[in-house]
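Model it.
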Amino acid sequence: MVKRSWPIFLIFISMISVQASASMAKYLFPLLGPAAMTAWRLFFSASLLAFIFKPWRKPIAKPAIKYIVLYGIALGCMNLSFYNAISRIPLGIAVALELTGPIMVAMFSGRRLIDFICLGIAITGLVMLLPLRQASSDLDPVGILLALNAGLCWAGYILCGRKAGELYGASSVAVGSIIATLILFPIGVWQGGSNMFSIEIVPLIFIVSLLGSVIPHGLDMVALPRIPAQTFSTLMSLSPVFAALSGLIFLHEQLTHYQWLAIIFIIISSIGTVLSMHKSNRIKVENQ
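Modeled.
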């Protein structure tokens, strides 16, 4: 029992690490700002990934250049939009709204009844979070749009990353991260100014990067070979819950029952999409 469950425990630790990183980043926003924080996090991540994959050893084929550049742009915009979103709205709600991006990518690849049911559930949760009712009127509309834009960029990140990976391999993530850093670092310097290079802040940003990238990626690499992809995707669908709890513990962000219900709808939609995809793949295999 323990032998089979410990990879799942690692995935939970990974999600906790990611959301703790986001909470810590938000805590530092008054000192640095979302753009500068995004720039530093991408810089540290790109440095690590370049060290691991050493992309300079492998020439980039011309067909891959376009997708790698688009992947880098999507990665940078996704991180920038997300950090700007959580500076305006609670962390749990931002993560739930961002999750709509990969949900839509999965849904639009299917045409079955269950796909439309999941889509309807996701839209219901999304509408509940929009500031159209008194229960959600305290949410910043700009923050909501930024979180949705992060989800849209996440969708682009998935689609372009998949194509870049096919054409160039795993080194695509390193090159894409470098491109994102080159685009966003000047923006970060413009917003953060001299504070961006404060000797007191840089070590804290490194910890944010460690918690948000290095530790979760390492744990995921250990756990992924030991659990089915379906299980991993289903567990990752619970990210908004960990985000909301992290926001509550570290940032004292209180969500209403109505907002929790909206988050649960989005999580149900995500889990339903994952299970539906698994069932569809199994049917195709059996019919071959």
